[in-house]
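Dear support,

I submitted the protein below through the web form. The confirmation email said the job was done, but the results page showed an empty box. After a refresh the structure appeared. I'm attaching both so you can tell me whether what I see now is the final result or a partial one.
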Amino acid sequence: MSEIVARLRADQIIARKAADKDRTLVLGTVLAALKNRELELSRVPSDAETVDVLRKQIKQRVDSVEQYRNGGREDLAAREEFEIGVLKAYLPPEADPDEIRAAARAAIAGGATDLGRLMGILMGRFKGTADGRVINQIAREALQQG
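What the results page shows now:
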């Protein structure tokens, strides 16, 4: 079991004992998603796969916030934002954008001259520590400058 899953389970127990229904619900939801991932893989997910599940859960909530705001449901958007905050606490620290830029410049100097190759190199190095959209944006900027 990964360290993240152990923290999620421990925090869910604490939330239950404190009768914090909102926190208990979001932690239970993400633990269920992790269990589903474990069943799909037929093994315990690695830390990187666990982070992927967390990022996917956060992305779903970000999309929901946008839809709720467009529908005038600020109360539901606020609830989703609360859940995003809870889940982000379990993600590892984000990679520094300057570090990603330096890696992009090095990869371009090493021969990665198209977006596909550059993204492959950067995602391999920063997967789990940076959002794919951020990596994509930095890769595009680096290719335009290079």
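Response: this is the final, complete result; the empty box was a page-load delay. The chain has seven helices and no strands.
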